[in-house]
Amino acid sequence: MLVINGDITKPKTQQQVVEWLANYVTQPGIAVSGVYIPRLDGGSTEADLLVFTPHAAAVIEVDALRKKTRGPLSYSMNERWSAPGIHGDPVQLRGDDLNPLHQVRRPVSALRTFVAELTRGPEPFVDGLTLLIPKSGNTVTLDKGPMPAGFTVLLGDSASQLYSWFGRTAQHRDRTPWTAELVVTVLTALRVDRTRDAESRRRLYAELLAEGFPTEVSAVPREGDGSSTTSTPVSAPPDAPVAQPAQADWDGPNSQGIPSGSPNPSSQIDSTPATPPTSAAVATSPDAQAHQPEQAGQARPNPQVAPTDSHLPPSQDAPHNAAPPAASPDSAQSTSPVSYGATPPASHADATFSAVQTSRAAPKPASTQALQTDASPAPAPAPAPRETSTDSNFRTQPPARHRLRTALLGIAAVLILICGIGYMAGKDHPRAQSDSQPAPSQVRPPERTTTPAPPPTETPSTQQHSTTPTEGATCYPFQAGC
Protein backbone atom coordinates (compact mmCIF):
# COMPACT_ATOMS: atom_id res chain seq x y z
CA MET A 1 0.00 0.00 0.00
CA LEU A 2 1.22 3.48 -0.84
CA VAL A 3 1.95 5.71 2.16
CA ILE A 4 2.20 9.51 2.18
CA ASN A 5 3.79 11.41 5.08
CA GLY A 6 4.93 8.17 6.63
CA ASP A 7 8.25 9.62 7.73
CA ILE A 8 6.75 12.35 9.91
CA THR A 9 7.48 11.99 13.63
CA LYS A 10 4.48 10.35 15.27
CA PRO A 11 3.67 8.49 18.44
CA LYS A 12 5.15 5.03 18.53
CA THR A 13 1.79 3.33 18.29
CA GLN A 14 0.77 5.31 15.20
CA GLN A 15 4.13 4.68 13.58
CA GLN A 16 3.63 0.95 14.07
CA VAL A 17 0.29 1.06 12.22
CA VAL A 18 1.86 2.99 9.31
CA GLU A 19 4.44 0.22 8.93
CA TRP A 20 1.70 -2.40 8.89
CA LEU A 21 -0.12 -0.53 6.13
CA ALA A 22 3.08 -0.15 4.08
CA ASN A 23 3.55 -3.92 4.18
CA TYR A 24 -0.03 -4.70 3.19
CA VAL A 25 -0.03 -6.06 -0.38
CA THR A 26 -3.25 -8.08 -0.54
CA GLN A 27 -5.44 -5.16 -1.55
CA PRO A 28 -4.42 -1.96 -3.39
CA GLY A 29 -4.64 1.23 -1.38
CA ILE A 30 -3.06 4.48 -0.25
CA ALA A 31 -2.68 5.79 3.31
CA VAL A 32 -2.08 9.42 4.31
CA SER A 33 -0.90 10.28 7.80
CA GLY A 34 -1.79 13.45 9.70
CA VAL A 35 -4.58 14.86 7.50
CA TYR A 36 -6.73 17.85 8.41
CA ILE A 37 -10.21 17.70 6.88
CA PRO A 38 -12.13 20.99 6.44
CA ARG A 39 -15.53 21.40 8.08
CA LEU A 40 -18.54 23.41 6.94
CA ASP A 41 -18.09 25.92 9.77
CA GLY A 42 -14.69 26.92 8.41
CA GLY A 43 -12.61 24.90 10.84
CA SER A 44 -10.90 21.55 10.37
CA THR A 45 -10.63 18.24 12.16
CA GLU A 46 -7.61 15.94 12.33
CA ALA A 47 -7.53 12.33 11.22
CA ASP A 48 -4.69 10.08 12.33
CA LEU A 49 -4.79 8.06 9.10
CA LEU A 50 -6.85 8.45 5.95
CA VAL A 51 -6.92 5.28 3.85
CA PHE A 52 -8.39 4.77 0.36
CA THR A 53 -8.91 1.41 -1.33
CA PRO A 54 -10.82 0.75 -4.57
CA HIS A 55 -13.90 -0.23 -2.56
CA ALA A 56 -13.59 1.67 0.74
CA ALA A 57 -12.47 4.88 2.38
CA ALA A 58 -11.67 4.83 6.07
CA VAL A 59 -10.61 7.20 8.82
CA ILE A 60 -8.45 5.33 11.33
CA GLU A 61 -8.01 6.53 14.91
CA VAL A 62 -5.05 4.92 16.69
CA ASP A 63 -5.22 4.91 20.50
CA ALA A 64 -3.15 3.19 23.18
CA LEU A 65 -4.40 2.01 26.55
CA ARG A 66 -3.23 4.18 29.41
CA LYS A 67 -2.41 1.36 31.79
CA LYS A 68 -1.98 -2.33 31.84
CA THR A 69 -5.22 -4.18 32.25
CA ARG A 70 -6.66 -7.64 32.01
CA GLY A 71 -10.22 -8.56 31.15
CA PRO A 72 -12.99 -7.18 28.95
CA LEU A 73 -13.03 -3.59 27.75
CA SER A 74 -16.62 -2.34 27.43
CA TYR A 75 -17.28 0.14 24.67
CA SER A 76 -20.22 1.73 22.84
CA MET A 77 -20.89 4.84 20.81
CA ASN A 78 -22.71 7.00 23.35
CA GLU A 79 -21.21 5.85 26.66
CA ARG A 80 -17.87 6.16 28.37
CA TRP A 81 -15.56 3.22 28.05
CA SER A 82 -14.39 1.20 30.97
CA ALA A 83 -11.77 -1.46 31.67
CA PRO A 84 -10.87 -3.44 34.82
CA GLY A 85 -8.10 -1.87 36.87
CA ILE A 86 -8.34 1.55 35.13
CA HIS A 87 -10.10 4.42 36.80
CA GLY A 88 -11.66 6.86 34.32
CA ASP A 89 -11.16 6.59 30.57
CA PRO A 90 -8.98 3.70 29.38
CA VAL A 91 -7.49 5.88 26.60
CA GLN A 92 -6.37 9.49 26.34
CA LEU A 93 -9.09 11.73 24.86
CA ARG A 94 -8.89 15.06 23.04
CA GLY A 95 -10.96 17.96 24.27
CA ASP A 96 -14.42 17.11 25.55
CA ASP A 97 -14.86 13.89 23.56
CA LEU A 98 -16.93 11.23 25.29
CA ASN A 99 -14.91 8.29 23.96
CA PRO A 100 -12.53 7.47 21.05
CA LEU A 101 -15.46 6.79 18.70
CA HIS A 102 -16.46 10.45 18.95
CA GLN A 103 -12.93 11.38 17.94
CA VAL A 104 -13.25 9.36 14.73
CA ARG A 105 -16.85 10.32 14.03
CA ARG A 106 -16.03 13.98 13.44
CA PRO A 107 -13.48 13.43 10.63
CA VAL A 108 -15.71 10.75 9.07
CA SER A 109 -18.64 13.17 8.85
CA ALA A 110 -16.39 15.98 7.61
CA LEU A 111 -14.91 13.79 4.85
CA ARG A 112 -18.34 12.71 3.60
CA THR A 113 -19.52 16.29 3.32
CA PHE A 114 -16.24 17.47 1.80
CA VAL A 115 -16.25 14.85 -0.98
CA ALA A 116 -19.93 15.46 -1.76
CA GLU A 117 -19.31 19.20 -2.17
CA LEU A 118 -16.19 18.54 -4.22
CA THR A 119 -17.78 16.12 -6.68
CA ARG A 120 -21.27 17.70 -6.73
CA GLY A 121 -22.71 14.28 -5.98
CA PRO A 122 -24.08 12.18 -3.13
CA GLU A 123 -22.11 11.62 0.05
CA PRO A 124 -19.82 8.59 -0.22
CA PHE A 125 -19.69 5.88 2.40
CA VAL A 126 -16.72 6.36 4.77
CA ASP A 127 -15.82 3.84 7.47
CA GLY A 128 -14.63 4.82 10.91
CA LEU A 129 -12.11 2.51 12.59
CA THR A 130 -10.71 2.82 16.13
CA LEU A 131 -7.59 0.73 16.61
CA LEU A 132 -6.68 0.08 20.27
CA ILE A 133 -3.03 -0.78 20.97
CA PRO A 134 -2.73 -2.57 24.33
CA LYS A 135 0.34 -2.62 26.54
CA SER A 136 2.69 -5.48 26.00
CA GLY A 137 1.80 -8.51 28.06
CA ASN A 138 -1.84 -7.49 28.52
CA THR A 139 -4.71 -9.82 27.71
CA VAL A 140 -7.64 -7.63 26.76
CA THR A 141 -10.96 -8.58 25.19
CA LEU A 142 -13.65 -6.32 23.75
CA ASP A 143 -17.19 -6.16 25.09
CA LYS A 144 -19.19 -4.53 22.32
CA GLY A 145 -22.18 -2.36 23.16
CA PRO A 146 -24.63 -0.45 20.89
CA MET A 147 -22.80 0.64 17.76
CA PRO A 148 -23.97 2.40 14.58
CA ALA A 149 -23.21 0.98 11.16
CA GLY A 150 -19.89 1.94 9.64
CA PHE A 151 -17.92 2.16 12.90
CA THR A 152 -15.62 -0.56 14.21
CA VAL A 153 -13.29 -1.04 17.18
CA LEU A 154 -10.33 -3.42 16.80
CA LEU A 155 -7.51 -4.57 19.02
CA GLY A 156 -4.17 -3.72 17.45
CA ASP A 157 -2.03 -6.33 19.16
CA SER A 158 -1.03 -7.60 15.68
CA ALA A 159 -1.40 -6.66 12.01
CA SER A 160 -3.64 -9.64 11.26
CA GLN A 161 -6.72 -7.94 12.74
CA LEU A 162 -6.17 -4.89 10.53
CA TYR A 163 -5.54 -6.94 7.41
CA SER A 164 -8.67 -9.01 8.00
CA TRP A 165 -10.72 -5.85 8.34
CA PHE A 166 -9.44 -4.52 4.98
CA GLY A 167 -10.28 -7.87 3.42
CA ARG A 168 -13.88 -7.55 4.64
CA THR A 169 -14.27 -4.01 3.33
CA ALA A 170 -13.01 -5.14 -0.08
CA GLN A 171 -16.15 -7.26 -0.40
CA HIS A 172 -18.41 -4.18 -0.56
CA ARG A 173 -18.41 -4.04 -4.36
CA ASP A 174 -21.88 -2.52 -4.39
CA ARG A 175 -20.47 0.82 -3.24
CA THR A 176 -19.30 3.55 -5.59
CA PRO A 177 -15.67 2.71 -6.41
CA TRP A 178 -12.84 5.04 -5.51
CA THR A 179 -11.08 5.56 -8.82
CA ALA A 180 -7.57 6.88 -9.31
CA GLU A 181 -8.95 10.16 -10.67
CA LEU A 182 -11.24 10.63 -7.66
CA VAL A 183 -8.50 9.88 -5.12
CA VAL A 184 -6.10 12.36 -6.75
CA THR A 185 -8.85 15.00 -6.82
CA VAL A 186 -9.67 14.56 -3.11
CA LEU A 187 -6.03 14.54 -2.01
CA THR A 188 -5.31 17.64 -4.09
CA ALA A 189 -8.23 19.47 -2.46
CA LEU A 190 -6.91 18.42 0.97
CA ARG A 191 -3.49 19.90 0.02
CA VAL A 192 -1.66 16.70 0.71
CA ASP A 193 2.02 16.39 -0.17
CA ARG A 194 2.85 15.04 -3.63
CA THR A 195 -0.11 16.99 -5.04
CA ARG A 196 1.45 20.46 -4.99
CA ASP A 197 2.01 20.71 -8.76
CA ALA A 198 0.80 19.07 -11.94
CA GLU A 199 3.88 16.89 -12.34
CA SER A 200 3.49 15.50 -8.82
CA ARG A 201 -0.17 14.75 -9.45
CA ARG A 202 0.66 12.91 -12.69
CA ARG A 203 3.23 10.74 -10.89
CA LEU A 204 0.76 10.00 -8.08
CA TYR A 205 -1.90 9.07 -10.60
CA ALA A 206 0.49 6.66 -12.34
CA GLU A 207 1.39 5.07 -8.99
CA LEU A 208 -2.27 4.55 -8.14
CA LEU A 209 -2.84 2.82 -11.48
CA ALA A 210 0.18 0.61 -10.86
CA GLU A 211 -1.14 -0.16 -7.38
CA GLY A 212 -4.41 -1.45 -8.87
CA PHE A 213 -6.91 1.43 -8.62
CA PRO A 214 -9.53 1.49 -11.38
CA THR A 215 -9.96 4.36 -13.80
CA GLU A 216 -13.18 6.18 -14.60
CA VAL A 217 -13.82 3.90 -17.61
CA SER A 218 -12.97 0.59 -15.96
CA ALA A 219 -14.94 1.51 -12.83
CA VAL A 220 -18.29 1.39 -14.67
CA PRO A 221 -18.55 -2.43 -14.85
CA ARG A 222 -17.15 -2.77 -11.32
CA GLU A 223 -20.01 -0.69 -9.96
CA GLY A 224 -22.65 -3.15 -11.15
CA ASP A 225 -20.31 -6.18 -10.99
CA GLY A 226 -20.90 -6.80 -14.70
CA SER A 227 -19.10 -6.54 -17.97
CA SER A 228 -18.62 -3.37 -19.96
CA THR A 229 -20.62 -4.77 -22.86
CA THR A 230 -23.78 -4.93 -20.77
CA SER A 231 -23.71 -1.26 -19.85
CA THR A 232 -22.78 0.13 -23.27
CA PRO A 233 -26.22 -0.32 -24.94
CA VAL A 234 -27.84 1.83 -22.24
CA SER A 235 -26.32 4.95 -23.80
CA ALA A 236 -27.19 3.92 -27.37
CA PRO A 237 -28.73 6.77 -29.43
CA PRO A 238 -32.51 6.68 -30.10
CA ASP A 239 -31.82 6.45 -33.82
CA ALA A 240 -30.52 2.89 -33.42
CA PRO A 241 -33.80 1.35 -34.73
CA VAL A 242 -32.98 2.84 -38.16
CA ALA A 243 -30.92 -0.24 -38.94
CA GLN A 244 -33.93 -2.53 -38.45
CA PRO A 245 -35.17 -4.05 -41.75
CA ALA A 246 -38.61 -3.33 -43.09
CA GLN A 247 -39.53 -7.01 -42.69
CA ALA A 248 -39.76 -6.47 -38.94
CA ASP A 249 -43.27 -5.15 -39.44
CA TRP A 250 -44.38 -8.64 -40.57
CA ASP A 251 -43.18 -10.60 -37.55
CA GLY A 252 -46.55 -10.68 -35.78
CA PRO A 253 -50.10 -11.04 -37.10
CA ASN A 254 -52.40 -8.02 -37.23
CA SER A 255 -49.44 -5.72 -36.62
CA GLN A 256 -51.44 -2.80 -37.99
CA GLY A 257 -54.51 -3.35 -35.84
CA ILE A 258 -56.65 -4.88 -38.67
CA PRO A 259 -59.24 -7.37 -37.33
CA SER A 260 -58.52 -10.97 -38.25
CA GLY A 261 -62.12 -11.45 -39.39
CA SER A 262 -62.08 -8.66 -41.99
CA PRO A 263 -62.97 -9.66 -45.59
CA ASN A 264 -60.04 -10.65 -47.74
CA PRO A 265 -60.23 -8.93 -51.14
CA SER A 266 -57.42 -11.00 -52.64
CA SER A 267 -59.80 -13.83 -53.66
CA GLN A 268 -61.72 -11.53 -56.00
CA ILE A 269 -58.85 -9.62 -57.58
CA ASP A 270 -56.46 -12.44 -58.44
CA SER A 271 -57.30 -12.10 -62.13
CA THR A 272 -56.10 -8.49 -62.28
CA PRO A 273 -52.62 -7.94 -63.74
CA ALA A 274 -49.90 -7.70 -61.15
CA THR A 275 -48.25 -4.34 -60.57
CA PRO A 276 -45.25 -3.45 -58.38
CA PRO A 277 -46.61 -2.81 -54.89
CA THR A 278 -45.87 0.39 -53.08
CA SER A 279 -44.49 0.57 -49.57
CA ALA A 280 -47.92 1.68 -48.32
CA ALA A 281 -49.45 -1.52 -49.70
CA VAL A 282 -46.77 -3.55 -47.94
CA ALA A 283 -47.56 -1.87 -44.63
CA THR A 284 -51.37 -2.18 -44.93
CA SER A 285 -51.94 -5.48 -46.76
CA PRO A 286 -54.02 -7.66 -44.38
CA ASP A 287 -53.65 -10.89 -46.39
CA ALA A 288 -49.86 -11.01 -46.91
CA GLN A 289 -49.51 -12.84 -43.62
CA ALA A 290 -52.66 -14.98 -43.99
CA HIS A 291 -51.52 -16.70 -47.24
CA GLN A 292 -47.84 -17.17 -46.31
CA PRO A 293 -47.42 -17.73 -42.53
CA GLU A 294 -44.37 -19.89 -43.13
CA GLN A 295 -42.47 -16.90 -44.54
CA ALA A 296 -43.15 -14.44 -41.73
CA GLY A 297 -39.66 -13.02 -41.94
CA GLN A 298 -40.03 -12.05 -45.63
CA ALA A 299 -42.11 -9.08 -46.79
CA ARG A 300 -44.36 -10.44 -49.59
CA PRO A 301 -47.34 -8.09 -49.75
CA ASN A 302 -50.36 -8.52 -52.03
CA PRO A 303 -49.59 -6.47 -55.16
CA GLN A 304 -53.30 -5.96 -55.93
CA VAL A 305 -54.30 -4.03 -52.82
CA ALA A 306 -53.22 -0.54 -53.83
CA PRO A 307 -52.07 0.90 -57.20
CA THR A 308 -48.63 2.38 -57.69
CA ASP A 309 -50.02 5.89 -58.00
CA SER A 310 -51.95 5.64 -54.77
CA HIS A 311 -52.21 8.75 -52.65
CA LEU A 312 -51.26 6.85 -49.52
CA PRO A 313 -48.28 8.29 -47.62
CA PRO A 314 -45.14 6.25 -48.35
CA SER A 315 -43.99 3.96 -45.58
CA GLN A 316 -40.30 3.93 -46.50
CA ASP A 317 -39.69 5.91 -43.33
CA ALA A 318 -41.56 3.37 -41.22
CA PRO A 319 -38.39 2.21 -39.45
CA HIS A 320 -37.75 5.79 -38.40
CA ASN A 321 -41.18 6.75 -37.19
CA ALA A 322 -42.76 3.35 -36.49
CA ALA A 323 -45.96 4.41 -38.27
CA PRO A 324 -48.93 4.30 -35.86
CA PRO A 325 -51.30 1.40 -36.46
CA ALA A 326 -54.33 3.70 -36.72
CA ALA A 327 -53.09 5.61 -39.80
CA SER A 328 -52.28 2.83 -42.26
CA PRO A 329 -55.64 0.95 -42.18
CA ASP A 330 -57.60 4.13 -42.64
CA SER A 331 -55.53 5.18 -45.63
CA ALA A 332 -55.85 1.74 -47.13
CA GLN A 333 -59.64 1.85 -46.85
CA SER A 334 -59.86 5.15 -48.69
CA THR A 335 -58.20 3.76 -51.86
CA SER A 336 -58.68 -0.01 -51.61
CA PRO A 337 -60.98 -1.86 -54.05
CA VAL A 338 -63.42 -2.58 -51.23
CA SER A 339 -64.29 1.10 -50.89
CA TYR A 340 -65.04 1.36 -54.62
CA GLY A 341 -67.21 -1.74 -54.75
CA ALA A 342 -70.49 0.16 -55.16
CA THR A 343 -70.89 3.61 -56.73
CA PRO A 344 -73.45 5.72 -54.88
CA PRO A 345 -76.40 7.22 -56.85
CA ALA A 346 -76.32 10.78 -58.12
CA SER A 347 -78.66 11.98 -55.38
CA HIS A 348 -76.05 11.06 -52.80
CA ALA A 349 -73.08 12.41 -54.71
CA ASP A 350 -72.54 15.37 -52.41
CA ALA A 351 -72.63 13.27 -49.26
CA THR A 352 -70.26 10.73 -50.76
CA PHE A 353 -67.87 13.45 -51.90
CA SER A 354 -67.83 14.95 -48.39
CA ALA A 355 -67.30 11.54 -46.81
CA VAL A 356 -64.37 10.81 -49.11
CA GLN A 357 -62.72 14.13 -48.33
CA THR A 358 -63.29 13.66 -44.58
CA SER A 359 -61.83 10.16 -44.59
CA ARG A 360 -58.71 11.44 -46.36
CA ALA A 361 -58.24 14.42 -44.09
CA ALA A 362 -58.81 13.08 -40.58
CA PRO A 363 -57.39 9.81 -39.16
CA LYS A 364 -59.74 7.59 -37.19
CA PRO A 365 -59.13 5.39 -34.17
CA ALA A 366 -58.19 1.79 -34.71
CA SER A 367 -61.43 0.61 -33.06
CA THR A 368 -63.58 2.65 -35.50
CA GLN A 369 -61.62 1.34 -38.46
CA ALA A 370 -62.10 -2.21 -37.25
CA LEU A 371 -65.90 -1.71 -37.07
CA GLN A 372 -65.97 -0.16 -40.53
CA THR A 373 -63.95 -3.03 -41.96
CA ASP A 374 -66.32 -5.64 -40.51
CA ALA A 375 -69.43 -3.78 -41.70
CA SER A 376 -68.18 -3.10 -45.23
CA PRO A 377 -70.10 -4.83 -48.09
CA ALA A 378 -68.67 -7.69 -50.10
CA PRO A 379 -65.77 -6.45 -52.21
CA ALA A 380 -66.31 -6.09 -55.95
CA PRO A 381 -63.72 -6.77 -58.68
CA ALA A 382 -61.18 -3.98 -58.71
CA PRO A 383 -60.45 -2.00 -61.88
CA ALA A 384 -57.02 -1.83 -63.46
CA PRO A 385 -54.39 0.10 -61.49
CA ARG A 386 -54.33 2.98 -63.99
CA GLU A 387 -58.14 3.19 -64.04
CA THR A 388 -58.34 3.77 -60.31
CA SER A 389 -57.25 7.37 -60.56
CA THR A 390 -59.66 7.92 -63.52
CA ASP A 391 -62.52 6.44 -61.55
CA SER A 392 -61.64 8.62 -58.62
CA ASN A 393 -61.75 11.72 -60.85
CA PHE A 394 -65.03 10.58 -62.40
CA ARG A 395 -66.66 10.31 -59.00
CA THR A 396 -65.80 13.85 -58.15
CA GLN A 397 -67.22 15.32 -61.46
CA PRO A 398 -70.95 14.30 -61.49
CA PRO A 399 -71.91 16.52 -58.55
CA ALA A 400 -70.76 19.67 -60.42
CA ARG A 401 -72.58 18.77 -63.67
CA HIS A 402 -75.65 17.74 -61.72
CA ARG A 403 -75.83 21.09 -59.95
CA LEU A 404 -75.32 22.98 -63.24
CA ARG A 405 -78.03 20.96 -64.97
CA THR A 406 -80.42 21.55 -62.07
CA ALA A 407 -79.77 25.31 -62.16
CA LEU A 408 -80.36 25.51 -65.95
CA LEU A 409 -83.58 23.51 -65.71
CA GLY A 410 -84.81 25.78 -62.92
CA ILE A 411 -84.07 28.91 -64.95
CA ALA A 412 -85.81 27.45 -68.02
CA ALA A 413 -88.86 26.54 -65.95
CA VAL A 414 -89.07 30.06 -64.57
CA LEU A 415 -88.82 31.56 -68.07
CA ILE A 416 -91.55 29.24 -69.39
CA LEU A 417 -93.79 30.15 -66.46
CA ILE A 418 -93.28 33.87 -67.08
CA CYS A 419 -94.04 33.49 -70.79
CA GLY A 420 -97.21 31.52 -70.05
CA ILE A 421 -98.47 34.11 -67.62
CA GLY A 422 -97.77 36.86 -70.14
CA TYR A 423 -99.54 34.98 -72.91
CA MET A 424 -102.68 34.40 -70.80
CA ALA A 425 -102.77 38.04 -69.73
CA GLY A 426 -102.51 39.26 -73.36
CA LYS A 427 -105.32 36.99 -74.55
CA ASP A 428 -107.89 38.36 -72.09
CA HIS A 429 -107.05 42.07 -72.79
CA PRO A 430 -109.22 43.87 -75.55
CA ARG A 431 -107.35 45.01 -78.61
CA ALA A 432 -107.19 48.70 -79.42
CA GLN A 433 -109.34 50.03 -82.32
CA SER A 434 -107.74 51.17 -85.52
CA ASP A 435 -109.26 54.63 -85.18
CA SER A 436 -107.90 55.08 -81.63
CA GLN A 437 -111.40 55.02 -80.15
CA PRO A 438 -111.98 53.27 -76.83
CA ALA A 439 -113.65 49.88 -76.89
CA PRO A 440 -117.45 49.78 -76.41
CA SER A 441 -116.97 47.65 -73.33
CA GLN A 442 -115.43 50.64 -71.68
CA VAL A 443 -118.32 53.03 -72.67
CA ARG A 444 -121.39 50.99 -71.75
CA PRO A 445 -120.92 50.83 -68.03
CA PRO A 446 -121.08 54.60 -67.50
CA GLU A 447 -124.28 54.83 -69.61
CA ARG A 448 -125.99 52.12 -67.62
CA THR A 449 -125.07 53.60 -64.29
CA THR A 450 -126.19 57.13 -65.18
CA THR A 451 -129.59 56.21 -66.70
CA PRO A 452 -131.65 54.03 -64.39
CA ALA A 453 -134.84 54.78 -66.40
CA PRO A 454 -135.64 52.96 -69.58
CA PRO A 455 -133.20 53.93 -72.23
CA PRO A 456 -134.41 56.80 -74.48
CA THR A 457 -134.58 56.60 -78.14
CA GLU A 458 -131.12 56.39 -79.48
CA THR A 459 -129.97 58.92 -81.96
CA PRO A 460 -128.47 57.84 -85.22
CA SER A 461 -125.06 58.75 -83.99
CA THR A 462 -125.57 56.66 -80.88
CA GLN A 463 -126.86 53.71 -82.86
CA GLN A 464 -123.97 53.99 -85.22
CA HIS A 465 -121.58 54.04 -82.27
CA SER A 466 -123.26 51.12 -80.54
CA THR A 467 -123.14 48.99 -83.63
CA THR A 468 -119.40 49.18 -83.68
CA PRO A 469 -118.21 45.59 -83.65
CA THR A 470 -116.24 44.51 -80.64
CA GLU A 471 -113.17 42.49 -80.57
CA GLY A 472 -113.81 39.14 -81.98
CA ALA A 473 -116.97 40.20 -84.10
CA THR A 474 -116.94 39.38 -87.77
CA CYS A 475 -116.89 42.42 -90.09
CA TYR A 476 -118.10 42.03 -93.62
CA PRO A 477 -117.56 44.46 -96.50
CA PHE A 478 -120.00 47.26 -96.85
CA GLN A 479 -121.46 46.55 -93.42
CA ALA A 480 -122.57 49.55 -91.39
CA GLY A 481 -120.33 50.37 -88.52
CA CYS A 482 -117.31 48.54 -89.97
User: For the terminal residues, how far apart are their CA atoms?
Assistant: 156 Å
Q: Which class best fits the helix and strand makeup?
A: alpha/beta
**Rg, alpha carbons:** 55 Å
- Globally, the shape reads rod-shaped
Counting DSSP E segments of at least 2 residues, the number of strands comes to 8
Strand order of the largest sheet: 1-2-3-4-6-8
Q: In percent, how much strand structure appears in the residues?
A: 5-15%
Q: List the total number of helices.
A: 17
- What is the H/E order? EHEEEEHEEEHHHHHHHHHHHHHHH
The whole-number mean of residue pLDDT values reads 66
Runs in which pLDDT lies below 50 for 5 or more consecutive residues are 220-381, 383-396, 430-443, 449-453, 457-471
Largest sheet: 6 strands, mixed
Helix content: 25-40%
Compact overview of the structure:
By secondary structure, the chain is an alpha/beta fold. It has helices at residues 12-22, 100-119, 159-169, 180-189, 198-211, 219-224, 228-231, 279-284, 288-291, 318-321, 327-335, 349-361, 366-375, 385-396, 398-428, 444-450, 460-466, and strands at residues 2-4, 30-38, 44-53, 56-64, 70-75, 127-133, 139-144, 151-155. A hairpin with a 5-residue loop joins strand 2 and strand 3.
